[in-house]
Amino acid sequence: MSKVRVRFAPSPTGGLHLGGVRTVLFNYLFAKKHKGDFILRIEDTDQTRFVPGAEEYIFKCLEWCGLQPDESVHNGGAYGPYRQSERKEMYRQYAEQLIKDGYAYYAFDTPEELEAKRNEIPNFQYNQFYRNKLKNSLTLPEDDVAKLLSGGTPYTIRIKIPSDETTIVIPDIIRGDVSFDTQQVDDKVLLKADGMPTYHLAVVVDDHLMKITHAFRGEEWLPSAPVHVLLWKYLFGLDKMVKWAHLPLILKPDGNGKLSKRDGERLGFPVYAMDWKDSNTGDIIKGFKEIGFLPQSFNNLLAVLGWNDGTEQEIFTMEELIEKFSIERIHKAGAKFDFEKAKWFNHEWIKKLPAEDLKTEVEKIFINNGITISDDSYLIKVIELIKDRCTLLTDFYAQGSFFFATPTIYDDASVKPKWAADKKDFFETIAEQLQHTNEFTATIIETIFKEVAAVKNIKVGELQMLFRIMLVGSKTGPAVFVIAETIGKEETIKRIKLAVNHFETLNA
Ligand code: GLU
Questions:
Q1: Ligand 1 centroid from CA 252, angstroms
Q2: How far is the CA of 289 from the centre of ligand 1 (A)?
Q3: Does ligand 1 come within 6 angstroms of the Cβ of 11?
Q4: Which of 26, 80, 176, 386 has the fewest CB atoms below 10 angstroms from its CB?
Q5: Per-residue confidence in pLDDT tens, the chain, 508 aa
Q6: Are strands 335-336 and 250-251 parallel, antiparallel or unpaired?
């Protein structure tokens, strides 16, 4: 078998939706599993839909996810250029070849004439039923066609969908043979009046020229596949055709239709991999990265949207995915997107990764919130203590800011009913005793704390709650004596004293 070569072929028309990243991921996993190549080709032949910045954004997203192409506009390769607009001159010969062989024709109808037809005939399509009544090289005498061409009359080249065949079969790895009725397929434009190919011609020519072996793409492309299969048959032969797999749709949480950008906005979760700035409105649409997802969990949750390895396993490393992935195990049915489940994946990954691997991202979050980190090993210690409590990376700030800054606000409502003279006395004694301990470990602090409580005959539970609020500001956080040990002796004593003063004002 020839070397596996797969491609992701986005049109740079906007932000990269999670369905797009899943397509990348499945391509990538398949390529890596088979020691093949993963190619990124920019399909920008439709200049009217071009969005500035979209191409760069796609590369950034793939970089974040760690799904780097082997060949692309950025890193080159033997089959470039990898941007279709730069390959413009390559396509015409194929369109002309099709005309010569009787599989395509010149169409001279102006946009206005076609518009008039659309208004006149309900559901008008340029197809086998209407093409004989329109202005093209199938209906006009040969001389007229030659004159129009030499006179520079604008034209498009359209595929001639066969009227003598009833079905077109798309062999699909996931779906088996999918049949389309030729009567339902219109004569798609292959080459536009400006000389640019349409997506249909370019995708087939490029898959062939770039020696692509497998084409995996979203199910929404299945209706275009009959045209692609015919082009393969007419130009290169079906034995050379890529192996198709149309990936299941990602559905709205309730399963009612394809997940859209608007659903994310409506339901309050991201659908783009990274923040995307809408160039029309200037609005920033939040991405998974920025709201605090790890690339590991993003890849993992996308991998299991429509695929499983046949066991109950849900958490997969990239290495495991590469090893276990198979296109045959992708489901046909759409996969519902569940944001709560997505967060669960992130939580599991935060717990799973060593603090060292989370450090860079967590540090950025603290810095963005105005906290300066001067000691790396201290940060690592803090991450280790709180990571099991964090679902999103952004939670690290709420869960851990008190390790870096003395609280300024306290949970007064919880303190008020418990604060009294005996508590004041207890904490003043504790501050005093801690001052004289040499070894400041959680165990020693706890021992002292409990001994003093016993001597003073006060319930330890209440005291611990107060101690926690003194150190944290609230009732959250890991084991209180561990917090004390971590922030250190001086800071602990300082916080006790500050809090005692504040708590004293509550019942005044
Ligand atoms: N250019 C198409 C897109 O924007 C690619 C479809 C395909 O992979 O054939 O998604």
A1: 22
A2: 24
A3: yes
A4: 176
A5: 689 999 999 999 989 999 999 999 999 999 999 999 999 999 999 888 888 899 999 999 999 999 999 999 999 999 999 999 999 999 999 999 999 999 999 999 999 999 999 999 999 999 999 999 999 999 999 999 999 999 999 999 999 999 999 999 999 999 999 999 999 999 999 999 999 999 999 999 999 999 999 999 999 999 999 999 999 999 999 999 999 999 999 999 999 999 988 888 889 999 999 999 988 888 899 999 999 999 999 999 999 999 999 999 999 999 999 999 999 999 999 999 999 999 999 999 999 999 999 999 999 999 999 999 999 999 999 999 999 999 999 999 999 999 999 999 999 999 999 999 999 999 999 999 999 999 999 999 999 999 999 999 999 999 999 999 999 999 999 999 999 999 999 999 999 999 999 999 998 7
A6: parallel
pLDDT (tens digit, 9 = 90+) per residue, 132-178? 999 999 999 999 999 999 999 999 999 999 999 999 999 999 999 99
473-501 exposure pattern, b = at least 16 Cβ within 10 A, e = fewer? beeebbebbbbbbbbebeebbebbeebbe
Of the candidate CATH numbers 1.10.10.350, 1.20.58.100, 1.10.620.20, 3.40.50.700, the domain formed by 412-504 belongs to: 1.10.10.350
Atom of ligand 1 nearest to the CA of 207: 9
> What does the domain layout of the chain look like in residue ranges?
1-69+248-352, 87-247, 353-403, 412-504
- Determine the atom of ligand 1 nearest the C-alpha atom of 203: 9
| C-alpha span between 162 and 164 (Å, rounded) | 5
Ligand 1 center to residue 217 CA distance, Å?
A: 7
CB 475 within 8 A of CB 414: yes
Question: What tokens appear for 272 in the block?
Answer: 């783009």
Q: How far is the CA of 216 from the centre of ligand 1 (A)?
A: 9
Q: Which atom of ligand 1 is nearest to the CA of 8?
A: 8
Q: Which of 43, 87, 229 to mutate to test the pocket of ligand 1 (most atoms within 8 A of CB)?
A: 43
CATH classification code of 1-69+248-352 = 3.40.50.620
Superfamily of segment(s) 87-247: Glutamyl-tRNA Synthetase; Domain 3 (3.90.800.10)
59 lines ligand 1 (CB under 6 A): no
Residue 11 CA, ligand 1 centroid: distance in Å? 7
Q: Does the active-site annotation cover 341? A: no
Task: Tell me the per-residue pLDDT of 105-120, one tens digit each, with 9 for 90 and over.
Answer: 999 999 999 999 999 9
Q: Which of 36, 52, 34 is nearest to 44 (CA)?
A: 52
Of 88, 211, 258, 261, the active-site residue reads: 261
Question: Helix crossing, 489-506 with 460-472: angle to 10°?
Answer: 100
Q: Is the Cβ–Cβ distance between 5 and 210 less than 8 Å?
A: yes
CA nearest to 426, candidates 474, 458, 473 = 458
Q: Closest ligand 1 atom, CA of 23?
A: 8
The atom of ligand 1 lying closest to the CA of 20 is 10
43 within ligand 1 shell (Cβ under 6 A) = yes
Q: Among the CATH numbers 1.10.8.70, 3.20.20.70, 3.30.450.20, 1.10.3720.10, which is that of 353-403?
A: 1.10.8.70
With H, G, I as helix, E, B as strand and everything else as coil, classify residue 215: strand
Residue type, 505: T
Phi, psi angles (nearest 5°) of residue 178: -110, 125
CA of 10 to the centre of ligand 1 (A): 5
